[in-house]
Amino acid sequence: MAPSSLEKLRQLTTELCRRDETRIAELELYHAFFSNIPIRTFVWTVNKDLGIVTKNRKSLCSSSNIMTNGSIKDAFSCQHMNEYNIEMHMKAFGGDAQTYISYEGTNSFLTTLIPDVSGGKVVRVHGCSWDITHLQAMIDVSLEAQGALQEKSPDLADKISSVYSNAPLVQLVLELRKQRG
């Protein structure tokens, strides 16, 4: 090899090593975050066949500690939830991001699906679900309290209304619940 070719090879090797170090650091951050987040969270990527390509280790289902790589078709114990999630994944494969609430027994999950486009085609869909069971319960109780306080303590009822009006996550949950019926 000519000296200039050898130098180019060294430079390329150095750049690739730096890139790999950065990616390893990002992966370590990702794993540390999802291992320690106090909200039950599940992230995954599926291919066109709805096969799970990658995922974090924890399962959303409290009855299962670790979900194996398989298919999103059998990721949940409830057939109705499987059908709804498959429907939403297929919409995401149509090119549109999806955000929705789904239910598994008494648990509820806020899910976002993001299409991954390559060469003008959706090749994968990335998903993330958060367990919002307790958030929904707090919303319901607060709305009930707001109604009960309307006559006796209108200022307190207005404070509850103001908090909800200025809370984007609460507004999103309320809107998605309305859409789902």
The low-confidence parts are none
Strand order of the largest sheet: 2-1-5-4-3
Q: DSSP strand (E) fraction?
A: 15-25%
The count of DSSP E runs of length 2 or more, i.e. the number of strands, is 5
Categorize the overall geometry. Answer: elongated
Average pLDDT figure: 83
Number of helices: 5
| Portion of residues within helices | 40-55%
> How does the helix and strand content classify structurally?
alpha+beta
Amino-to-carboxy terminus distance: 69 Å
Major sheet: 5 strands, antiparallel
Over the alpha carbons, how many angstroms does the gyration radius reach?
22 Å
The SSE order reads HEEHEEEHHH
Question: What would you say this structure looks like, in words?
Answer:
- Strand 1 (41-47) and strand 2 (52-55) form a beta hairpin.
- The longest helix has 34 residues, at 3-36.
- Helix content is 52%, strand content 23%.
- It has a five-stranded antiparallel β-sheet, with helices on both faces.
- With 181 residues, the chain is α+β, with helices and mostly antiparallel strands.
What is the fold's blueprint, element by element?
Blueprint: H1 3-36, E1 41-47, E2 52-55, H2 79-93, E3 98-104, E4 107-118, E5 121-131, H3 133-152, H4 154-165, H5 168-180
Helix pairs in contact: 3-4
From the structure above, extract its key features:
alpha+beta; 181 residues; elongated; 5 helices
